[in-house]
Amino acid sequence: MNEKEFVKYVKELNIQLDDIKLNQLKKYYELLITWNEKINLTAITDQEQVYLKHFYDSLTLSKIIDLNQELSLVDIGTGAGFPGIVLKILFPNLKITLIDSLNKRIEFLKLIIKELNLKDIEAIHTRIEEYGKVNREQFDIATARAVAPLNILLEYSIPMIKRNGYFVPMKANIDKEVTNSKNALKLLDASIIEQIDFKLPKENSNRTLIKIKKLKSTSNKYPRKYVEIKKRPL
To answer: What superfamily would CATH give domain 3-231?
Structure first.
């Protein structure tokens, strides 16, 4: 997906693009490639592939959530900043928190935030289950892209979301994970209210977005410690 195609497909998502945002994305790409030589940020480095599989893919969250509102959003296991940085560039109204357990990635993200002059966004080095213990019901939206199975992601995310807020995992193939998450949804008082399946342009790879609503305040016993979550997923 070259830049011209990117513009075309993003407009089909009803997202406003201008030269400033396009230049920010271009600079983001250049810094991503430079830093990727120092630390492992992404296996995808070809520009057209980055614009398709990272930039455009990140923006598909808008298919299931109206991101033009004043919302607080936490990006769990953000890695090189997908989808959080891309969402901030295209939706400057969002207040975004990026979480990752590798400090080198956080250093990269802090540089991106500074170089692109992004506001109301922070990058935090921590384990998500530790962050969720002390930052309960803080966010309107939580999202995660290619981080962990759904039943584990639910325990990470639901405690941080406000009551009636949403967790939207971004997945490739999800059917088995949904089946395996019924117990987690019940224990965490959350419910799947919408699922959208679609294909990425150009290559037609499968993508799924799931909109999960938090129905009640979460018990203080969640999230558990990492060892317990890994050993006995909900």
So the answer is: Vaccinia Virus protein VP39 (3.40.50.150)
